[in-house]
Amino acid sequence: MKHTILSRSLRGLFAGGGAAGLALLACPARAQAPAPPAPIPRVEITGTLIPRATRETAAAVITLNRNDIERSGKTTVAELLQTLAVDNQGSVPSSFGGGFASGASGISLRGLGAASTLVLLNGRRVAPYGLADDGQKVFSDLNIIPTDAVERVEVLKDGASAIYGSDAIAGVVNVILRRDFRGTTVRASFGQSREHDGNDGVASLTWGKGDLQADRYNLLASLEYGRRAEIWNRDRAERAYIGRGDLRPWGFSAQESLGGTGAITANNAGGSAINGNVRNPDTLDYVNRGNLAGAGFTRTFPGAACANFTRHPQGDPGGGCLVDAAQLYNQIQPRQERVNFFGRATFQATPEVQTYAELNLYRSKSTSSSTPSALSGAVGYPGGPVNSANVMLGATHPDNPYFGTPARLRYTAADVGPRVSEIDSDFVRLLAGVKGSVGPWELDTALLFSQNQVSQERSRYLQRDVMYALLNPSPANVAAASANPAYAALPPGSVWRIAENAGVNSPALYAALAPSLTNDAKSRIAQLDLLASRELAQLPGGPLGIALGGEFRRETAELEPTPGTERGNIIGLGYSAYKGGRNVAALYGEVLAPVHPTVELSAALRADHYTDAGDAYNPKFGVKWTPVRTFALRGTYARGFRAPSTAENGVGGLAAFSTAVDPLRCSLGVEIACNPAAIAIITSPNPALSPEKSRSVNVGMVWDPYKRTNIALDLWEIKRKNEINQEQSDAAIQAGRIARDPSGATRPGDPGPITAVLASYVNSARTEVRGADLELNQRFDFGPGTGEVTMNTKWTHLFKWLRTEQDGSARDFAGTHGNCDVTNCVGTPEDRVNFGLSWERAAWRVAANVNYRGDLKNTLFKNDPAGCASHLANGDAAPAGCELPSFTTVDLTFRWKPSTRVEVFGSAQNIFDKIAPLDPLTYGATAYNPLDYAGAVGRFFTAGVRYTF
Questions:
Q1: What sequence ranges are listed for the domain TonB-dependent receptor-like beta-barrel (predicted)?
Q2: Closest alpha carbon to 304 in 293, 292, 317
Q3: CA gap 489, 492 in Å, rounded
Q4: Can you tell me the distance from the alpha carbon of 660 to that of 645, in angstroms, rounded to the nearest whole number?
């Protein structure tokens, strides 16, 4: 059976999930007079180099057009993409202000990490964000995209290294901006939570002039400004456990590391109290400074009474002073201000030649807050761990209850204030190109320059050497700190008064103790590319198409270390730095062969040469079979690769923090060691790293059983080897690559707590991910005057997310809270579902969007022999059944167009005000999972207006 261009286009649009396909199906058929044949317009599609007459390819593509974006109620493209079912563990949310890559947002298709998802802008690369996620994973910041300039977003759900090169292992997100616009549109919106915070204001102006056909030019400019206010944990005090570190009301113990700050947990083990816990030099028991009956005290401090500092519920059996520092100082959402500009100029020089230029500018400033520094934390630098567990109040320090004898101190420096990080990000992308026809060839060549520069300023982080000297001014400590000019300028004998006596400290003392720290990062891409395509011959199913191309680019990246971290001198801040550059050259080609009216074959091959990582050759094959007009089978096979990033094979290193159980101390009966506790991980780059390599298979079908119904089902598998990772922290602990603090021992034979794990980046693992995608589109027309109803469902299910280490040990993370080494313990849900239902009639459109996350076992991987990762005070697995329940939110949006020029719109996110399930394990948020961010914020309202001149 022969197929019309219209019928093939409909199936292609459905296969991509585009709402435009549904709109076409709703149009009634009309008899038309024969018309002279016209040239069939061809479109560019993500995942192929060859322009086509239809959008249908062998690969599965999700298409989100402007209507989809507006129906979502999201104010940024980043927010919309991170709600998609295909996004999974490893994405980077803008809400995580405490991470290495705070201030940015990244997507992680198939849960393979943001570094394995390639983001394109109009089909070409952008410079990655200057700060690597977890100090390792380089990714593109989705915030650079101006929402009003977006034409559509295409998400290719299988490997595409044969087309685009490195980083496309899990798929490609191609954001296609407007290229031809006339008129002027002004849009403004304002959002606020039910708690009257988190204000989100957006204003934009889009202008276009010129018709390419009539005027031979088009000029387009889009300017967008957005400002989003912070949301504090403390402002969600009525939302049960949200934002709380002290979980005693839900059955947890203050003795655990997850409990309130300041608990005294055991002999020789005490938390950092807001008024100070000190260690008895004789018994090694910690005692709170406010305890007037402290054993062995030579001085007492009535002003240090816990009640003078906090109204937080007490009850620590060890006598500590409890506060919930996470609730007081941490944020659910950081403050961010952003400006976005996109401009495009297109000139039709001749009927065959078109020149174009694009300019993207983006600037953002984000500010995040976290708890005040605790004095005793371990930090790492390339030379090893630096342990501050032995910080002491000197024998003559006036606030020492054991005056006359040095005493260890555990103190939360609330007098210094919460730690603050301010990040300025500047992005620029400049593109100039020419496209046109030369004989039978269609050519497109462009020169691209893209850069992201990040400036980071941190304040209220303690200088280790100055802290030691101000608390215990021994000759050795004073000599070490005197190299610091700010300390040297202080009066001789200066001491840091703590807690109730902090008011006597001078501004100069705080300036020496916790100065502002700044560092910069920069990433840059310069690229020249050329693509040529043509039709070679006529095959039974259509023309044989071919595309050939090549590109050369220069990539550089540099992150300066935060001053002082290169020697482990900043309390609570690990070392992260890298520097490097490389040249990349590539040649590629693709063939599209419709060998039969029902069969289309495609093949692509790309060769890349990296000056630092060698050569890579990657093929891709596709087939599409359409036995009848309403049914098609499709499949692809592809190989892919990811070249090591500068952070992984350059010059520098990383010292970060994670959580781990200490099996040795746990087996000795040290209960606190049986629960995950913070540790430092010190990782060195490895110039001998090989690229990661992958193989992906996608098999699916598209079925249009009825006029307004479309179903797409795809089964997929991705296998990745030579995976570049830090070694698993538990594996490194088992191998003994650790550092301990012997002075923290609690009993004979106790080696003391782990302070750091020593590792490097290695090609150590392989991953196998297998799943299924189901998409259903349905449109209902109930008759004249009733409007039309559209339903869309996207469901992604993971059968397996298996990671195998170099020693052969394997861990399946599907449906569990892992992989904690790469996801901030966000977890890997087996099921994610997006369901949309909209009704449109005349000037009105109302839509509901349902987002579902499946339940998670609170284990680090399937069948973990260690059992549940968290426990209640009575020893029971936590949460109940060792499972995080599933979480579902419902969003409502509306649009009203009283005239052709005016549009009023609004949304209510999380309309039922669902509270996110309790999650005690993740360290990307406090007591809730970052995947459930909407359940932490609560109901959120947005209203806006658009006017077109």
A1: 538-911
A2: 292
A3: 9
A4: 26
List own/partner pairs for 595-599 with CB under 8 A and 24 or more apart: 595/539, 595/540, 595/541, 596/540, 596/541, 597/1, 597/2, 597/3, 597/540, 597/541, 598/1, 598/541, 598/625, 598/626, 598/627, 599/541, 599/623, 599/624, 599/625, 599/626
**Start-to-end CA span in the chain (Å):** 48
pTM: 0.87
Identify the H or E element spanning 732. Answer: helix 729-735
Pairing of strands 407-410, 277-279: antiparallel
Q: Do residues 154 and 62 touch, judged by C-beta distance below 8 A?
A: yes
- According to DSSP, the residues that pair with 486 across neighbouring strands are none
Compute the chain's Rg from CA coordinates. 30
Look at 13-22, 216-225, 427-436, 922-931 and tell me which has the smallest mean pLDDT.
13-22
DSSP string, 126-190: -PPPSS-BTTTB----GGGS-GGGEEEEEEE-S--HHHH-TT-SSEEEEEEE-SS--EEEEEEEE
Q: How many CB atoms lie within 10 A of CB 749?
A: 9
Do the Cβ atoms of 812 and 801 come closer than 8 Å? yes
**Which tens digits make up the pLDDT trace of 267-316?**
888 899 999 999 999 999 999 999 999 999 999 999 999 999 999 999 88
Of the listed ranges 129-133, 591-595, 670-674, the least confidently predicted one is 670-674
Give the pairing type, strands 171-177 and 150-156.
antiparallel
Say if CB 733 and CB 662 are below 8 A apart.
yes
Gap between the Cα atoms of 433 and 445, Å rounded: 6
Q: How far apart are CA 910 and CA 29, in angstroms?
A: 40
| Torsion, CA 829, CA 833, CA 834, CA 838, rounded to 10 | -150
Take residue 626 and report the two structure tokens written for it.
Answer: 């359409």
Amino acid (1-letter code) at residue 360: N
What is d(CA 526, CA 533) in angstroms, rounded to the nearest whole number? 24
